[in-house]
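Homework help board

Subject: predicted structure for assignment chain

Our instructor gave us this sequence and asked us to write out the predicted structure in token form, then describe one feature. I got the tokens but I'm not sure how to describe them. Can anyone check?
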Amino acid sequence: MSAEATNPNGVSPELRPLTQPAALQRTAQGRRRGRPRIDLRRLGKAALLGSAARGRTPDAIAHVAEAHRAHHPEADLTILSRAYVLAESSHRGQMRKSGEPYITHPLAVTLILAELGAETTTLTASLLHDTVEDTDVTLEQVREQFGDEVCFLVDGVTKLEKVDYGAAAEPETFRKMLVATGNDVRVMSIKLADRLHNMRTLGVMRPEKQVRIAKVTHEVLIPLAERLGVQALKTELEDLVFAILQPDDYARTRTLIDNNAAQGDPLAPIADNVRGVLKEAGITAEVVVRPRHSVSVHRVSRKRGDLRGTDFGRLLVLVGEDADCYAVLGELHTCFTPVISEFKDFIASPKFNLYQSLHTAVAGGDGAVAEVLIRTHQMHKVAEAGVVALGNPYAQPDAAESVPDGERVDPTRPGWLSRLLEWQESTPDPDAFWTSLRADLAQDREITVFRSDGGTLGLPAGASCVDAAYAQYGEAAHACIGARVNGRLATLSTVLCDGDSVQLLLAHDAASGPSPDWLDHARTPAARIAIAGWLADPETAHDAGLPKRGRPDGETAGAPGVAPPVSGAPAAVEGASRPVVENAVTDLPDASVRLAGCCTPVPPDRVLGFAVRGGVVTVHREGCAAVARMRALGREPVGVRWQDTTDCRVTLVAESFGRPHLLADLTEAIATAGAEVVSATVEPPSEQRVRHTYTLQLPDAAGLPALMRAMREVPGVYDVGRAQHPATA
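My token output:
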């Protein structure tokens, strides 16, 4: 949207087709002849001459029309002609900083989108995308002439005024744009194409402004292009940013690429061999050598050190049907030596950004290794253009094409966008939003985990159970006390992997809340914002009976049937604060009852009580050493008896040899038996032996022997008994 003009690499300004992606498109669809490279000055002169004769497409958008018809042969170009006339007349007299008429910018942006296969509505809005921002045209006029859809898209990419928002204008503009993208993803398609043309023509700006724009592009726009699957825009943006932010590395990388090109392409003979193998197998396929772009070469060089000739590109195999992809894979792995560690199947499990392809690598007879991408022509179109290749994703599908129940109708609303739209509502401060947005987008990969109810959660790579809890339950996740990952108890800090199943465990105690340590485990802004909000609210901390700035050990509070999922270093785990209701009564009037921690009596143990300070009677088992001490001191016992209730509280001590996952296995055995962990303590290991102490609430005292047997059967446990502490009454 800004009016910059010359290429940062010193190339004369021109409206050029997308370099690598466009070439691949022509390879896959048949090379189109007769399209010269476009001179912006000539185009600008045509723009100033106004529209063509009635009924004809203006000469200035002839290249846009040709590119559009290549993807949409039946497209009606009338609306494009009208949009061009309005854009040209409203921008007339405005110039870019390099001297070209301003209309050349919306024309260039529109051609980029036309090359990618955008449908007519997107191209119409693209031609008009700066009119409301930079001219006297109003949104209402756009709506009257072109309808609600075009008006929404134009409004979505229109910047907020610095006069009104000051320093918050940029983050609030992106917030507005992202919210609009949540309703129509084509908003971001136009923004990405707009930024690409501005980056191509950034050289006339001051160096410090080039750096500022390049940083925002790197931190926000490139990750968005990746998430929307628009690889054609992403790769070129990466190279342009690379040249500005890392000029020395860029220059060295370009030298490596040029030197390799001068020596010939070692992938060419491998490609010929692959063609021969597939032809002999009767598989119709195109085999193309796909050069790596500059940033990709730089990444490979940092990973592998000295580069081989085959590291500068990959083979792309294009076929007609999904089944052909696997047929090609089989032939390659039969006739060449496969590098199994390089195999990835993104057809059976597409990436979150719509990407589908088979990845493999094979070694030739001379030991040269070639990476191979295998996909259909349609997969390739989506791989390059992402959501742009979907056309209008909001059009109603034909009845014959309707999707089965349970599948997402609109594939342009993946988990990351939904998460982003949710947490931004909780971040009114522009600076906090801007920081959180860049942190969220810095996660360069997404995983899918399966919920216990059969649903799925989309999370960034590196997300923990804490992130999963807030993604599933929102602020109700404050009460989360643990999780089962793939059926096993796990700590909330456990990092999740793609395909994991996660069951999140919530406490019944409303006072439960997160620990400050949770912030160390949270990767998503939604989780961090919610946790920080709870910890910063003195009321929630006070209600829970905790210090104002947090709650110790909050992630492992006890809940019915749930053991504290703690592993690793020795730790003490306390349950959520709750009233203790003992199931014994005393004959002493107005006295309350407390079960002794030294012998942890439970029904139907024979018990005695002793009155202590504060009107409390402590209940001991008859054989407890404390009873003998009380009698020796002349203390008379008080009559106590068990109530009719069957539930009880007991403290058990497990003696075991130290080993990994022991605590998780023990607590799983406890949970399986239906006991509730009130508190647990793991003492420091001594001579490879570990002592675990659990205070448990059992629904039925009769189940205590079975529980103790189950704990003894855990590998590594050599004894389980009732607690016997030296204690007074």
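Reply (TA_rk): Your tokens look well-formed. For the description, you could write something like this. The longest strand covers residues 648-657. That's the kind of observation they're looking for.
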